[in-house]
Design goal:
heterodimer; A: alpha/beta; five-stranded parallel β-sheet; B: alpha/beta
Amino acid sequence: MARRRSIIFRAPESGIIEDNARVIADLLQAQAPELVLLSNSTRGRLLAGKLGAYLDTCVISGISELNEETTRRMVYGGAAFRTQKLTAKTAVVTCSAGIFEVSDGQASPDAAVETMSAADTRIRKVETQAKEGVSSNIAMAKKVVDMGRGFKEEKDVEMCRELASLLGAELGCSRPVAENNGWLPKSVYIGVTGIILKPELIIALCVSGQVQHMVGINQAKKIVAINKDERAPIFNSCDLGLVGDIYQILPLLIEKLK
Amino acid sequence: MDIIACIKVVPEEQDIVTLPNNELSFDKVQWKIGQYDLNAMEAGKQLAKKTGGKMKVLTIGGDALSKTKIRKDILSRGADELNIVVTDKKLSDSLITAKAIAEALKEMGSFDLLLFGTGSSDIYSQQTGNQVGALLDLPVLNEVNAIEECEAGLKVERMLENEVEILELPVPAVLSVTSEINTPTIPGMRDIMAAGKKPVNELSADISSISEYSEVVSDLAPVQRDRQQKIVKGEPEEMVEALIQFLNS
């Protein structure tokens, strides 16, 4: 096994951690690893891009699968999975949440820890503000209630949230619900440009079943769909489909589950 | 403030056909401006207007860029000038694209700000802007949700997963914007008429020697999981009963 070494980078109070990219790239250059893994978060992606440019290598971002020599990720709005072979010496890859089994996360006991900081200081942090909306564990949830664009008003979110809480599920949504309506935070929208899920159960409420959204829920073990339009494409990819009015079905379901 | 919006012309997803062997056919695709690039151009247009500057657009791609229709479409969205590199090189990797952009920029003269969308709507690596920034050694940020001019250069709001950062940075700089930064305006008749009179420059950037860093093995439509497809219609009570049974099974 390779020598374990932990280096902790700290951003100066007035900077951002991504500005350590040059120092990190120099370290990587010296070690010449075959693979550099980062999270597919905003910071992870920026850091990955800079490392890729400095190391003159490819960055494959938002992968859903990692094998010995290849990665898989979605392209063309979910219409396809791209299998890509890494031909560069050091490949930089960012992974979406939920693609690996979570380990107990303990650092290896014999790791040597060093702290470094050598940030480029052109970008200055003025302040950090809390983001509106609650945090969510949707990427790791076993059950998910999925709110589609077919709902009429913002207060319907409460009904969906109540169902989620009765089922012990997390609440997510399709892109228009988060981006156009702003009813739920962007961090819980499901689909090709949002979160890709792999839960036991998804209950899709008023979801039509567009490919861009379906790629986010297709890997669920079971899918239940409720939609009044019986021609909605979601009914072709669900295990149980209820054709009916959500405003009749949902209150009744909530009542029964209580 | 002089702005260059870097955009990509991409295949219309709805025209992509899945063949029986799960491969994709692009034979019938129309080409369009990438969805997120519309946000970049809108942000550029607004900032140029506010600061009394200009916005140029740069795009690199294949034959689709030779068509007048797509050129006019780009120019009707607030660009003062369109710069194009037509190439048969496959830009299948964000670093190749970033290097090609850096090469093309040498011909375009100075700028204060390069703008990108959050990702191209076909490949969506969300990397090109980050990599152009690194290659040019300019301050670079992604997921920027608001931009204004300030004494230091630019003051921006950046969306992280759980918080919003307020940052200041000097120009020239490179920013990729979120899809929520604005609502792109739909061009009116006057914009479309004016687009025909705006300059289009075909750049001669030589990008043929940029090498590949990865190899695309295949693009295949996802295999559908077998679903039970049990469909229930009728009274709400029956449907809820079926659902509860399903949840308990």
